[in-house]
Design brief:
This protein is of the alpha+beta class. The chain has a single domain, classed as Oxidoreductase, molybdopterin-binding domain (Sulfite Oxidase, Chain A, domain 2), CATH 3.90.420.10. The strands form 2 sheets. Strands 3, 4, 7, 8, 9, 11 and 12 form a 7-stranded mixed beta sheet that branches. A 5-stranded mixed beta sheet has the order 2-1-10-5-6. A hairpin with a 4-residue loop joins strand 3 and strand 4. The longest helix has 14 residues. The radius of gyration is 19 Å and the shape is globular. The N and C termini lie far apart (40 Å). The relative contact order is 0.17. The chain binds the ligand Nc1nc2c(c(=O)[nH]1)N[C@H]1C(S)=C(S)[C@@H](COP(=O)(O)O)O[C@H]1N2 and molybdenum atom. Heterodimer of a catalytic subunit (MsrP) and a heme-binding subunit (MsrQ). It catalyses: L-methionyl-[protein] + a quinone + H2O = L-methionyl-(S)-S-oxide-[protein] + a quinol; L-methionyl-[protein] + a quinone + H2O = L-methionyl-(R)-S-oxide-[protein] + a quinol.
Length: 321
């Protein structure tokens, strides 16, 4: 079978990445104060496309959990793994080759903060200890494109149980890897690295909140956030931080990367809602990655039956962007 992979820059609708537009504008406005200094610093760069680090073991067998139905075809793997947002590797969609420089092993993630038992987990020990399963989830990017991916992973709640959150913990903060020698995007020093995201403890405990270690039955490739990412399928994709290194339970609402960059466009909650437009474009429909289709966007990305109850008493909050 011949599958032609369109490169990010060949997709006419997305010649411009909306999220990048903001930053380029900010840079043009002279907000790039630290840029000169950062470019001057010596950055050791391994050869482009060269995988780094120790070998990644195959995933243990993972049965598909049929409770979660995508109701749409799975996006062909070459599209999902070649059209990515991962700003640490560049503010365009074609970062997959550059991301192969990320060493995926050894990998550890710290889980700490307001917990009884802070711990650092080696990724393979964690995978062996967790209830691994496959879930087919929709992913809706705030840029109005979407895909459907079979992820392998385990509920975020299963990991949090291991460290026993204290009653005072109200939020979960996700910190993702920032490795200057490996990630050329970090030289764009006007961005508030590292990439931070966050959610409430109730959202983290929701059955849909998923820690992902694989896609399409294989270990999660770096461009999709390997070796460990989170996915909240009812929220815009930017809430789902890639390549996690630290998970912190806290009593303060984390301020996320995109909130810091442009808080009027990217808020804390960022639940998918077709009726609430982004300030610069409509969210009513979405382009289906790998097809020429546009389909209506659904509230909570179609996951309202699982998550709508989380927001009933929060109508005063800016829940949708
Ligand atoms: N660390 C980090 N995580 C990130 C991003 C990023 O730039 N850096 N981009 C986000 C955005 S905007 C989206 S839409 C999803 C994209 O995931 P995918 O490449 O697997 O489709 O990752 C999210 N997680
Ligand atoms: Mo996104």
């Amino acid at each position: 079978m011949l599958i032609r992979i369109r490169r990010g820059w060949e997709i006419p609708e997305h010649q411009v990445t909306p999220e990048a537009v903001v930053l380029n504008r900010r840079a043009a406005l002279g907000l790039a104060g630290g840029l000169a200094a950062a470019t001057a610093a010596t950055i050791v760069r391994p050869a482009r496309g060269q995988p780094q680090g120790a070998a990644v073991p195959p995933l243990p067998p993972a049965a598909r959990n049929t409770r979660y139905q995508a109701e749409r075809p799975v996006t062909p793997e070459p599209y999902a793994t070649a059209y990515n947002n991962y700003y640490e590797f560049g503010s365009h969609k074609g970062i997959a080759a550059a991301a192969r420089r990320l060493p995926l092993r050894p990998w550890t993630v710290r889980v700490e903060g307001l917990v009884e038992q802070p711990r650092e987990f080696g990724l393979d020990d964690l995978i062996a200890a967790m209830p691994i399963e496959e879930r087919i989830y929709r992913l809706r990017c705030v840029e109005a494109w979407s895909m459907v991916v079979p992820w392998t992973g385990f509920p975020l709640a299963a990991l949090l149980d291991r460290v026993r959150p204290l009653a005072a913990a109200r939020y979960v903060r996700f910190e993702t890897a920032a490795i200057p020698g490996v990630m050329p995007g970090l030289r764009q020093s006007w961005y508030p690295w590292p990439y931070i995201e966050g959610c409430t403890i109730e959202e983290a405990a929701n059955e849909l909140a998923f820690l992902v270690v694989g896609a399409y039955g294989k270990p999660l490739p770096p461009q999709n956030g390997g070796p460990l990412r989170v996915h909240f399928p009812w929220k815009y994709g930017f809430k789902s931080g890639k390549s996690l290194v630290r998970i912190t339970l806290t009593d303060r609402r984390p301020r996320s990367f995109w909130e810091t960059v442009q808080g009027n466009e990217y808020g804390f909650w960022a639940n998918v809602n077709p009726e609430v437009p982004h300030p610069r474009w409509s969210q009513a429909t979405e382009r289906v990655l790998g097809t020429d289709e546009r389909i209506p966007t659904r509230i909570f990305n179609g996951y309202g039956e699982f998550v709508a109850h989380l927001y009933v008493n929060l109508q005063h909050e800016r829940l949708w962007a």
